[in-house]
Amino acid sequence: xxxxxxxxxxxxxxxxxxxxxxxxxxxxxxxxxxxxxxxxxxxxxxxxxxxxxxxxxxxxxxxxxxxxxxxxxxxxxxxxxxxxxxxxxxxxxxxxxxxxxxxxxxxxxxxxxxxxxxxxxxxxxxxxxxxxxxxxxxxxxxxxxxxxxxxxxxxxxxxxxxxxxxxxxxxxxxxxxxxxxxxxxxxxxxxxxxxxxxxxxxxxxxxxxxxxxxxxxxxxxxxxxxxxxxxxxxxxxxxxxxxxxxxxxxxxxxxxxxxxxxxxxxxxxxxxx
Length: 273
Known about the structure:
The model has no long low-confidence stretch (mean pLDDT 90). The protein has helices at residues 15-23, 46-56, 72-75, 119-128, 147-154, 167-179, 193-200, 212-225, 242-251, and strands spanning 3-9, 30-31, 36-40, 61-67, 83-85, 88-91, 104-106, 137-141, 159-164, 186-190, 203-209, 226-238, 254-262, 265-272. The relative contact order is 0.12. The chain is an alpha/beta fold. The chain has a 7-stranded mixed β-sheet with strand order 10-9-8-11-12-14-13, with helices on both faces. It has a 4-stranded antiparallel β-sheet with strand order 2-3-1-4, covered by helices on one side. A 3-stranded mixed β-sheet has the order 5-6-7, with helices on one face. It has 9 helices and 14 strands. 32% of the residues lie in helices and 31% in strands.
């Protein structure tokens, strides 16, 4: 029997839809410029899948078709690449060099967000290279796979707290910490960022790759958590939201620093004004 092909065009940032697809049982998602594509086996209740998507994004457009039966658990690997991002590289295990160096972050794609396949992850990693200093204490909010916390340590940070609310992502993050040899320097913590950030403060750098609406809510907590010379790297912001975010940052006492733009996504470094 044919598999179901499901293409979703999110009406807002796709993170919630991506999480909904995995919650529905997707084993891999291909990111297109304006859509997310995945496949489900023939017995899947597509009405339930659609309900989960619309619960995450009521305005999402869903196209369902038929596809030849595939072993998606293997085929999706063809679409995960190694990304060279300045001084660092992000790679799945099957593309990592045999002799791994301290500049390669090996991430096994799983339930957690953050494989290097998303422009927001790449944007933060590029910006980090002008922010992280040797010996820094870092907090990674909405850590997902812990890729950014691991990157911070590989850039010289003394330690990083990878804070993640989604219980399903914790195991993947902890496995990635072990895989990259940063046990004891990256601590994965399950819970709400607004609650936990004050407990790991003070930190010199906050990394926050989250929906822009959540970022705005977290700005006061981020400000209180930073050391006087601290900086935050914000991502998960659509290019179309840039003007509103800049206005909000200026109004709440933040100064804009370096920026990164890729595809429809904008990331930036901010410090206290």
